[in-house]
Amino acid sequence: MTRKSTKSRSMELKYLILKPLGYPLKASYSEYPVIDNPKVFERYAKDQWKGELVSKGKMLFDIRLFPDFAFEVINAEPESGIVGESTVIVVESLSKPFETEIVKDVTLDDVVGQDEAKKKGRVILEFLKNPKKFGKWAPKNDLFYGPPGTGKTMTAKALANEASVPFLSVKATKLIGEHVGDGARRIHELYDRARQLSPSIVFIDEFDAIALDRSYQDLRGDVSEVVNALLTELDGIQKNDSICTIAATNRVDLLDSSIRSRFEEEIEFRLPDYEERLEILRKNFEDFPIKVKANFEEISKHTEGFSGRDIVEKIIKSTLHKAIADGKEAIETDDLIEFVVRIKSPSRQPPKQMFV
Ligand SMILES: Nc1ncnc2c1ncn2[C@@H]1O[C@H](COP(=O)(O)OP(=O)(O)OP(=O)(O)O)[C@@H](O)[C@H]1O
Ligand SMILES: [Mg+2]
Fold it and tell me: What's this model's pTM, rounded to 2 decimal places?
């Protein structure tokens, strides 16, 4: 492959996120290259690709050690720009359980209710935009807890978007490895990447999987290994590491109290009330693909106990798909109620407790 330098006046990229694709041709000796040291790889990558104009979907070819090995640009900030000296380059890897996203499509205004989280969110935003101001008073880690589908992930992503920082996410279950040392290594790799991209947000979902109270743990060394590594990272985050960690769980009651105490704040996410359900309905019917002639007050009245996700995914989306499949031109109240009733039907409810 020949190297083409693009002399364009495009903006220099801030971040470039790549995924290894592979060679154009497969030979028995073709091995999957493993990045040994992300910092050294970044230098190596810049030496080859400096001046290159890239955008999402484009391929970049290695021209040195693994000639013609292709990487796909899976994200870039701005969406199109040139690779420059200050571009931070990371490569997502199949062997690493975490993902790096540049979030664009969700803001705190999209999150209905959850005022406590939004208030704390403003502090986190101020910190990520202006880390020096905070020094040792920086907000470093928070625990989001509450029922499924209430906006925990959405809020964490909105913070990353509004602060214009990368969003590193991982499911705690994926941190537990097969071999001793896997979990601790993954945590350290996660925070190495967070430092490389700093300021950044680390989001650890399904946190209960690693932070269970000891009485619930079947004394698996690998789980406590992950937690110890995480606590070491949280303690070690220096004054100048602008990394904010958010852990999320549905079951805060099951968490180990000593781990809970390491989080500076626990923020509860609640199921939406009548007004909030109404707002979720209104927001989601803006720019809707087909006509809507529904009474939102009626739907909100009938959806007590539903989460935001239930309303969006199980009611609005299902109703839309059915309407399209049936060739309908508009959605009416009854079409939505049909799915509300389905969700409420006894066969979908958890079994009642035998002993009260
Ligand atoms: N408070 C809310 N305001 C607006 N939309 C919401 C809200 N809560 C949930 N939703 C809708 O539900 C979707 C799923 O929410 P999200 O993934 O943030 O829930 P979660 O709390 O992280 O759930 P889980 O505990 O299962 O991970 C959102 O993308 C959004 O469409
Ligand atoms: Mg979530």
Answer: 0.85
